[in-house]
Amino acid sequence: MREHIFLDMKNFKIFFTLIFTFICFNVFAADKYSKIYSFEIDGVITDATVKLVAANIERAERDNVPVLIYINTPGGVLESTRLIVQNILSSKVPVITYVYPNGARAASAGMFITIAGDYAIMSESTNIGAAHPVSSNGEDIKGEMEKKVVNDTIALAKSIAEKRGRNEAAVIAMVKESVSYTAKEALDLKIINAVSANENIVSILPDNLNISKKAEIQFFEPDFTQSLYNFIADPNILSVLLFIGIALILLEIKVAGTFIFGSLGAVCLVLFAFGANILPINFIGIGLIILGFGLLVAEIFITSFGLLTIGGVISFVFGLRALFDSEKSAGVSVSMWVIILIISLCISLVLLIGRLIIKDFKRKPVVGIESLEGSIADILEWDSASNSGKVMLHGEIWNASSKENYEKGEKVKVIVADGLTLHIEKNNNE
Hints:
It is built from 13 helices and 16 strands. 36% of the residues are buried. α2 runs parallel beside α3 (78-89) and α12 (307-321) runs antiparallel to α13 (336-362). 49% of the residues lie in helices and 19% in strands. By secondary structure, it is of the alpha/beta class. The termini are far apart.
């Protein structure tokens, strides 16, 4: 009897264990994420990108949904990159980073964001790396500042690699030696977790992320404010806004009273000032740009045989290249093609203003006695013996003289006004 009871108890324990396992399995399966929120980082990393990442991660945490970040960036502001990395590392939901599409890159600041993800993926034909901090003109930072910035950046890369279990040596090499890797190389070196096409991305996610293989990816476009931030945060757009703003203010000075050019110029400068809070602006660069404008304008009034123009162009180039703070940026710079376009437009604008000024000097006066030259008058009376007479001009009677004879009512042309006497000639256009 006791043996029978013991067997029953044993069978009961086995049955209870199976039931408990089945329930736990179903509860676990029910807790799998069935949806993924996604958005993209496309372009230069700035404070605008920080706001975009923070808003999307906050939404995902509120709805308890994982995040997928599509990345395609040439780099950006180091401080902004740190804030984005902090958002990703402290996220309460899984964050997947994905360098996409084919041909995209996670260069410089983009490298830190990519490796910060819980699961980092790269699409085929993409690359990652070249994260050595550089100045705003694309050159290496020199002296003690280089050691400070580079060591600080290496520490950031190393801390992320330790946190996510990535190859520290390979990650540090991307910062210290500006090494870049293809997607396959990055996978072999254990910098990332996978290489995959976009249509397979959900199927390759590991079980520890607890994401269903049938999870739906919901993409979020940036709202109007975020789009405006992204637009203004482009260094090329900012430099163009600064140029247009200054140019329109100069036109307002030339064509005073319209307020159209001045108003538009003020709007452009306000937008530039707004963008200056997003990107680290170097005010020495702004000073050089204003100096360049001043030299080009001075060329109109001072005969320098082109020396002021050359000086203005040089000042423009250096000003635009130094427009962004090198200590706080990582490859943020104005495109050389944009610089060439701005300088070309600026020179054209100066030539146009110069032409208008020269035209003003050559234009005949519209007031005073000199304005009568070229006017058409009517003969009131004429004395052939003295070659003089009276003419009607603009409702007034004038004395007139000429070497030719005229008939009453004949129309004549004023050559020059000499006191109260008009020297006239026949109107050949009649």
